[in-house]
Fold these 2 entries.
Entry 1:
Amino acid sequence: MSLLVVGSVALDSVETPFGIKEEVLGGSATFFSTAASFFNPVQLVAVVGEDFPEAHVQFLQSRGVDLNGLVREKGRTFRWKGKYGWQLNEAQTLDTQLNVFQSFSPKLPESYRATPYVFLGNIHPQLQSQVLDQVRSPRLVAADTMNLWIQNTRAELLETLKRVNLLFVNDGEARQLTGEHNVVKAARAILALGPSTVVIKRGEYGALLFEKDHVFACPAFPLEDVFDPTGAGDTFAGGFMGTLATAGRIDRDVLCRAMVMGSVMASFTVERFSLDRLRELTPPELYGRFNEFKRLTHFDEFPLNAR
């Protein structure tokens, strides 16, 4: 089944201890749609400027992403510049230029409005609600947010969360949103705000999935080489949502499988700058790592008669 993603398409400049890349392809919708395209057709809604390279458009098209919702407007493309230290857990933002993204007002093509799975990328909560006003009876609505929206647009965010089935946040955002220091208590508090499922991303420490009566813990895949964490959370969401859409159902087993696939997708993303690793990723590599993940985390029950 198809997926709809609404978010940013950007040009990133990134510095890590392993190198510097200038004006490479980035943005939440870009990372999400690239990851999800390994599983399902993806419809993308975003805005770019006159200066957005045609080669990037061709890359997304090569992944089978439907770009009828990608608008090119007069002006410059959204740009982000960040720097990571050796821990690689959190970026220091050096520069943000919203440019055409500042006046972004998502308008869905008619062919997108009945898409069953919707992902609201990290955009203003009023824009997220604007998207939900345009879709027709989606099977599942998932959303992402960030500290800026939690701090400055809390009322609008809380209204949007009432219309969301699944929320992706990192552990810091979960604490900020709820005022709870403990991640488990924070997740319970988020569930009380509207979503039936919350996924708390914890970077190199993995991710946690919470439902009312169910918790699933997923570790991060152990890697020797980590070059650039930019977009890892969005590719996690893309792998997660792609798995749900492929299954065509939402139950406990599928949600757990989606958590693992999200972690697998993110593990490939961080191995190169930008989307370079995903450009060369093959399905045998992807499913091979998924199966390796299962081997790494498998264990038998403890025998009751053991001493």
Note: The radius of gyration is 19 Å.
Entry 2:
Amino acid sequence: MSKRGLTMGAMLAPSLILIVLINAYPLVYAAIQATHDGTLTSTGPYVGWDNFSFALSDPGFWKAARFTLWFTLIGVLGSWAVGLAMALLLRSNVPGRSVFRVLLLLPWVVPMVVSATSWNWLANTHDSPLPSLARSLGFGDVLFLADPTLAAATVFAFKVWGAFPFMMMTSGAALEAVDHTVYEAARVDGASGWQQFRHITLPLIARPTYISWILMAIFCVNDFPTIFLLTGGGPSDATNSLVVYSYRLVFQNFQPGYGIAVAFLMTAVLSVVAVVLFRQIRRAAR
């Protein structure tokens, strides 16, 4: 190793050691808990991989896993589609686009508790604005957070609404790096707007797009407050994600071993997704 490399390694070592020390103990303790049948105050007897095998045969786990999958897919792709559309719109000569850019960041800037409380007020009760609007349009009594399908749709919409500003900023930054002369050459060759978007814009912003997908997938899978504050995982566990399911197991059912095992399984799947997307980033870089 060169002298420069040794110097950089020595400078990074204190920070790396500190990060390892801070994260190592919780990780090791969680792994120990996942292989024991204990309580919040005691480790309990050793059960090996029983918690993991029980999770894989638990219908509640798979129901939460299916919802987490849909929540992540819609959260990632929905927020990306809306964010990219807003970034493309703000890139054009729209009057007052600086003001719109700030206003469009509000869903991401406003604290989650305030946003969830506002959406709860809009849709939760019989006299809330959205159920009242549905009745006036002739749809009858529509309780958006009491029906399993409508509750899931409301959670999906809330996630997209709160996450698209992040995608808008990442897409906007990627679009700024695209050379305008490429579009001019494409127009000269007779390419339509859709052809320019499909064959120029999307390939040239592929790397930032995949990176934003990885980050948003992590945000969605680990998103506890969105679901817990809006629906609490109900009704009838219809909006129960894996992170909420794990929380309930640990802090409500007092099964920390099983709950932590669920969290480890969730982390393993998320790691596989991240590896797949990182490979796509490498391909896009070629």
Note: The mean pLDDT is 87.
